[in-house]
């Protein structure tokens, strides 16, 4: 009986291990789309079903919206997702797979600074409570747009990088010195959130040239200093582990413009080069996993005692 329990416990532990579900992250540069953007020249996207199909537009990715307290409001892995290509007429969240050719619709978003042909844009929006149709105006709440997928962090990866123009400069108070009589320094702050299993990375503005294993410019490429910036974060704590990778704007509305927060980004890369700073948080083991480990240890210890008694 105990041997059977031990075997079951070990099998359970093995099935919970990342190797059982190992799969690579997909389409991290958004070039995997099979949508023909030329269709948009003579056709309104509302008449093209493929323009709203997630696996046509961004294969490998899924989309969801979350309330400000992090609860999932809507989620879609396959099939149609509203407001994919064009801004809607209302305040619904929207997603855009942009094309860098400004002659191809939609042309209202900045495409400068990205490589390849495509990048992704996410914009927050507003949801409405239709539970009581007699209430007018309808109660509403803010929603955050999230793009996500699950995969295994490469075994040798020490850093994750993302290219984006969604960042800003702020000022930090420091000691006043003759060299710095104002007592302030400029600090770059990300205008996006990159998360693994719900935990934010500690992203820092970097030079892509400092990551030679992933910086492979082709002849004719513009200098990296003329491209959108790269941000990097330490992920050594989750190397080799399966994680949900999620990207989203900050929740809510921009405090200065009062527009919904929005981001655009491209080229998510895993590098073997280290990045300074705090590594992404690893959650405590679940109660179920700890219980299996404890019972496995007990079974192993009892089995060892039985062997000792039998040999005496």
From TrEMBL:
Signal peptide region: 1-22
List the keywords (alphabetical).
Signal
Protein name in the entry: PEP-CTERM protein-sorting domain-containing protein
Please name the taxonomic classification of the source: Bacteria, Pseudomonadati, Planctomycetota, Planctomycetia, Pirellulales
């Amino acid at each position: 009986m105990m041997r059977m329990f031990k075997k079951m416990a070990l099998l359970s532990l093995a099935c919970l291990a990342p190797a059982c579900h190992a799969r690579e992250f997909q389409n991290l540069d958004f070039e995997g789309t099979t949508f023909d953007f030329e269709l948009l020249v003579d056709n309104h996207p509302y008449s093209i079903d493929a323009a709203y199909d997630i696996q046509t537009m961004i294969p490998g990715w899924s989309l969801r919206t979350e309330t400000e307290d992090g609860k999932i409001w809507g989620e879609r892995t396959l099939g149609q997702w509203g407001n994919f290509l064009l801004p809607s007429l209302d305040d619904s969240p929207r997603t855009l797979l942009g094309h860098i050719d400004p002659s191809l619709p939609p042309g209202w978003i900045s495409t400068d600074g990205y490589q390849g042909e495509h990048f992704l844009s996410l914009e927050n929006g507003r949801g409405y409570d239709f539970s009581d149709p007699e209430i007018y105006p309808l109660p509403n709440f803010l929603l955050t747009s999230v793009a996500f997928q699950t995969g295994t962090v490469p075994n040798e990866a020490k850093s994750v990088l993302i290219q984006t123009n969604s960042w800003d400069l702020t000022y930090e108070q420091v000691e006043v010195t003759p060299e710095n009589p104002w007592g302030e320094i400029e600090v770059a702050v990300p205008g996006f959130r990159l998360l693994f299993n719900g935990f934010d990375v500690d992203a820092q503005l970097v030079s892509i040239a400092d990551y030679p294993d992933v910086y492979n410019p082709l002849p004719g490429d513009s200098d990296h200093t003329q491209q959108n910036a790269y941000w990097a974060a330490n992920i050594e704590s989750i190397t080799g582990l399966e994680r949900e990778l999620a990207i989203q704007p900050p929740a809510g509305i921009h405090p200065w413009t009062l527009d919904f927060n929005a981001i655009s980004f491209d080229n998510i890369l895993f590098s073997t080069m280290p990045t300074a700073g705090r590594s992404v948080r690893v959650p405590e083991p679940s109660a179920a996993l700890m219980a299996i480990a404890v019972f496995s240890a007990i079974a192993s210890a009892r089995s060892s005692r039985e062997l000792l008694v039998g040999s005496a």
